[in-house]
Structure formats: structure tokens, C-alpha cells
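Fold sample X.
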Amino acid sequence: MISRREIQETNRMIEKMNLDVRTITLGISLFDCIDSDLKVLSDNIYHKITCLASRLVEVGDEIAKEYGIPVVNKRISVTPIGLIGASACKSPEDFVVLAKTLDRAAKAVGVNFIGGYSALVSKGMTKSEEMLLQSIPLALSETDVVCSSVNVGSTKTGINMDAVRMMGRVIKETAERTKEQDSIGCAKLVVFCNAPDDNPFMAGAFHGVTEADSIINVGVSGPGVVKKALEQAEGRDFEFLCETIKKTAFKITRVGQLVAKRASEMLGVPFGIVDLSLAPTPAVGDSVAEILQEIGLECPGAPGTTAALALLNDQVKKGGIMASSYVGGLSGAFIPVSEDHGMIEAVEAGKLTLEKLEAMTSVCSVGLDMIAIPGDTSAATISGIIADEMAIGMINQKTTAVRLIPVIGKGVGDQAEFGGLLGYAPIMPVNTANCEAFINREGRIPSPVHSFKN
């Protein structure tokens, strides 16, 4: 039971520290929509989404008024379309029809984004999944709120390098097709290793095949709350620092639990998980970079950054799992560049590089996120960066992801504007040493020896 004191404390965090529920995400299974006729399949998908999600936005707004907790986004995730479209889709263009159906359904119910234009190809690709990957650039350029993700690796299966090579080309083509908007299509496309089934955050959300017919997952975020709490830890030892982060994460997760349970009750949909992720926004005071500074670094990228981020991520998870029995998704600290003004400042000052960000991903919750790179970066180089990040996830048995944006027509020193929660980003330099011979090898990188645990 949530006490009145906790509610009053939560109100202070909302008013002064940018605490919010970043998203209520309704997961919807589309398996019962499958049909060999594309029009019937499309109609089934539209009908199911609009029926189940008809009150999602309304409920999110009611909860925000009832508790005084900002609910920033209302979103939908669906079963990976690479599976759902297999019987009906005979070409990449057929899959684009389904992307447009998702877009139309999401707009009809008023949600911010819909995720699940996805494929799970960590070990190999079916013909239909290959067609879905080929369709992504056109699908993302001709829709507004559809998000796409592709899982190309896992600790159990290794890394599908054929898919990695293909995704480098897909990202380049997506950038070209949306170049008039600073290649924003790539901001809606994530490449994963060890993708979770219950992630409520975009652009990587999809409704996993192990999930129920529908589910409510909530993502709560409070970097500003953690930063404010750490102001009292200045000069104190690591034990005090860790206890402060852990207690604060506990309080934040309780807010997510409250909202998730209420949304579940109002929608008549089972509660899934709370994702406690310190997900920043471009707003000052809502930054993971500022937390790292409060811990004692001049800025992200300084020596000690990876250790400080590891400490932060671990304590956030420890606090969260004590507050709810169902913490899931990606829970931890996000380090996107464009969505965190402190990260942007560190990049602009030359203190934070792509290589340092890669090192940080070994201990954070996701990976190389919302990073703008020169538009002339080759597809092979992009695939090489993806392969490196997937290897970090595979070996460390954690989720890693890549959301790179090669901004067509722009280079180092320029800036890309994405707007809203996506913010803006300076174009970061990329190591251009050639890796084509490596990327062009066919097959997959085997799973590591410690994956054999049966």
C-alpha cells in the first residue's frame, strides 16, 4: 500500500526534480490476427489495436490528474511484424502496408509511438524476416509514429553477421530517405543484442512472444531526482553515495508501481513490469550527465566515467528490485547523446568521444543511443560499430543496442535537430579505418563459451 507520506514526497520530486512517468506502454499480441490475405491481416491488426488501446491515452491523462504525476507518453508495442506478416507478405512492399496500418491505428488512438515493426534474427533469417529488414527504410520514411527494431545477436546464439551487414545498409538507406529531416528515420530504428521482451521504451519496444495477449508496462524516469539527492552526498564516502542512489531509486520505482497498477485496473489489462530507467530529456536538470558530475566527474568522458556509471547503474537496479517484484525492461541508466544536454556539452567540448561512449555501454542499460555521425559514413563502418556493440552485449550477457544517425549532408562540427524528446545532437567523428573485409564475411560469430549452461 502506498502511504500518504510517500505521495507527499513524490509530489516534491515532481514539482522540483523533473520526476515523471516517461511512458505507459500497452503491449498487444497480434498472433490471432494472422491471415494469408494481406488485406484481412491488415484489417485484423487495425481492429485489434484500436479496440484494445481505445482508452489508453484517456487513462494516462486521468492517472496524471488523479495523482499529479506527469505521464509524458502513451505508447503501444506489438508482436514483431516479421513473425506476424510471414504468411501474407510476399515482398518488402507488402510489409510496408503493415507499417502503414500500424501508423494509422496508432494515430487513431492518439499514442505517441507504436513499436514492433521488428524482427528477431540473432541466429538466422527467414525469407519474410529478410524482406522486413529490406522494407524498413521505406516503412520509416512513409510513416510518422512507427518504430522499428532488429535483434541481431544474443549470448545464447552469437551474432548474426549477415544481419549486421544488412543493417548497416538499412540505416544508410533510411538516412537517405529522411534526409530532409536530418535523417530522423534512423532515430526510430534500433539494433539489439539480447533484446528484452518487455521493454516499454521506444524505439526498441516490441511485445515479446512469451507475453500474454495484452499487458501494461510502465517506464519511470527520474535523473533529476537522483541528482538532487546526491547533492547531500558531496564529500561523503562511497557507502553513503551508494545508499543515497539506492534509496532514491526505490522511491522512484514505487511511483511506477502505483501508476502501473492503476493503469492495469482502469484498462482491465494485466500489469507486466516497471522499467526503472534514468532516461534523460533535453531539459536542464533532467540529465544522467549531471548525475555523473554530482558523483565527482568534471564531465562525462573524464577518467573514472565508466566506473561511476557502473556504480550508478548497479545501485539503481538494487533500489528498484526492492520496490517492486516485477522490475524489468531495461532498468538502469540511459546515455543517449541527443536527449541529454550534459552529454551534448561534453561532446561539443571534445571531452566525450564515440570510443568512450562504447566503453560506457559495457556497464549501462542500453548502448550507443541517439548518436549523430557524418552522413558520408559508409555502411560497412556502421556495421562495424554495430558488431562491436553486439559483442559487448553477447560477452557480458546484457542488453546492448545501437541507434546511430548518419545525418546526410552534414559532417563533424554541424548539428542535427530532431525536436521534442529527441532533442538535438552535434555530429560526432567516426573512425574511418576500413573494416569491409571483416563485415563482408558471411555467417555468424559463435556464442561465447560461458553461454553453455544447460
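Fold sample Y, listed below.
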Amino acid sequence: MIVDAIDAEEEEDGEIAGLVVSVRLRRDQAGRCGVCRRHCPQYDRGPGPRRWRALDLGVIPTFLEAEVPRVQCQEHGVVVCSVPWARHGTGHTRAFDDTAAWLATRTSKTAVTALLRVAWRTVGSIVSRVSADAVAGKDRFGNLQRIGIDEISYKRGHRYLPVVVDHDSGLLLWAAAGRDEATLRTFFDLLGDERCAAITVVSADAAQWIAHVVAERCRHATLCLDPFHVVQWATKALDEVRRAVWNEARRGGQRAIAAELKGARFALWKNPEDLTERQQAKLADIERTNQRLYRAYLLKEQLRQVFHLRGKKGMTLLDQWLSWARRCRIPAFVKLAASIRDHRASTDAALTHELSNARVESVNTKLRLLTRIAFGFRSPDALIGLAMLSLGGCCPPLPGRS
């Protein structure tokens, strides 16, 4: 672009309200469609000068102003011609957009809005378009072989985002609003049949809507059940036993025992190596006074040991665990054993491939932080854009930096 003039706009008291930089397109930059950037014949000179908000010059708001003609594109019709300093259809320069997006991934919304002097909803729009531009400009699905699928709640009222993570790079590949088979199919539609066939392993929880789509679109892939979710099932079964024992003690007038059991939840949940001295003593009391609850605790710990061993040793221990759980006479664990048998193939696959959803859970933890940062965005698109910038490797560098 060519700079023609720089004018200062003054307020009534004589203070400078802003700087307006008048620019024009070079001859080789003019006459391109704003959408596809193909050379097109000029349609008219446009409605008059247009302005774009630029980065401040020190503390002074700065704007670019230019006469921008419209062109006649065979594919997109009559559109404003492309300008090198801004994305099509926006009121901010590229440098302003990229700075806002970079700041949104690294600081609070209050800091972004105060520094750039824009509304938080404007930041959401900027994040969406910068993310879309970055995603369109790179191949995220090259050499994709191992993926993890999960969902995260991003808003009250059962609003979920299914997410797909690359196990090898740890990057977020895709996210969308919804929690059903149709939503997940859109990811595999983007992937294409050839790349779907190249996927070898998929890790996920036991959600049927994930299993159905994976079986349908990735016929050569092995589905691995996430060990974390299996151990979580055992922890819930253990807590169900604890509550039942506590209720029995309370109804039987054994208030001291009921009080001890109510405070024993974390001692039963935590891994043995993480127990405090007080929690170890509480666990020893349970072993002495309540064999059923302690047996449930041992069942939970042995199932955790299955996924610690992995491989053939893990599968052998899982066979022994299932045999023990079937005859333990604890309804919650008998039911759990039946559920694991139903998912035995995907459980064995997780042990064989030594794969879990740990990377996906790590991304989900960061996503939960982003949902707090993104509070105030009107649509999930802005949140997804922020997630792709922060966790998908799509964040542009600050202007002027490589």
C-alpha cells in the first residue's frame, strides 16, 4: 500500500482524538476479489472512503482510510476488492486482529478490552475470524494415525463440545457444538475417506454415539476404552458401597461408625501412595470394622493395578479381577464387572496399545480454563476459535515477530 497523508482529528479541547492515515492500493494489489483474491473487472468505485481500526500509535487511536472499489467476481458476485492490510469484511487491520487474538489466548478479557479499547464481544468476533483464517491455511490432519475423542461441558443446560485430539502431537484438531453422532460425523467428513482409513487407534470413553461413528467411518481403527473412565466407574461403585454402609450404620443407631464412614471418603478414593497418616489410620479402622467396605476398596485398587501393569500381565490380572468381582456379593461391583465384560474388547485394546485419554483430559482441563476466560462470548464459535488458537497450534505471532 501507499501512504498519501496523515491527519490528526482533534477534540473540542484541542486534544488529539485519533490519527487517520490515508492510504491507497498499489496497482499490482488492486482488482482482486475480497473472498477468493482472483483478478476481476472493476464494478464501481464503491460508496466512498472506508476506515479500519489499526493498532494505537502510543496512546493515540489510529485508523487507516482508503478508497476501495468493488469488483465483479464470477463466483462471488459484486464484492469489495481485497486489501492487504485487513481481512475481508472486517473493520480492523490484520495487525489489530492478530494482536487481539494473541492477547486473548494469554491474558484475561479485562486486560484485552482495556488495552485495545474494544468490547469483549468484538474480541470474540476477532478470535473467530483469525482462527478460521489460520485453520483454513494449514493442513491439520496430515499423517493422522492415533486420535482421542471426548466431550466437555461448556455451558449450563447440558451444552457440550465434542473434541478430537492428536495423540502424537497433543494438539486439538477439532471441536464443535453438539453431543451426538451427526455432530461427530462432521469431523470425519472433513477428514475424508482416505485419511479415515489411515487412522489405526481411537481412544474414547464408553459413549455409544462415539463407538458407532468410529465403527462406521474408521473401519480399520481399534477402539480403546479410556482406563481413567473404567477406574472412575470403580470409584463410583466404591462410593455407592460406602453410602450404603453409612446408611445402615445410621439407621442402626451406630452414630460413631456412621461419622467415621462419612469422613472416610477421601481415604477410600485416593491412591495408597498419596494417603496422609490420618487417612492411613482411617483405612486401617475400616479394615478392622467393616470387611465389606474394605473388600470394595481392594476391588477398586486391584482394577487400578490392571491399567498400571498393562499388556498381557494387565489382561491376566483383569481376568482374575472379573472372577473375583462376579463372586464378591457386592451388587455395585457385580454390576461393574458386567459392564467391563460388555466392553472387554476395547478394554483389552487399551491394555495392548497402552493408550489412554490422558492427552485429551489435559486438553479438556485447559478448555475449562478457556471457558472461564471466554465468559461473555455470545456463541460457542468464539470459544471454539479461542480453543483452536490456544490448543490447536493456530495462534498467529504478534505482528512484526516471526
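Sample Y note: The chain has a mean pLDDT of 88.
Also: The CA atoms of residues 184 and 322 lie 33 Å apart.
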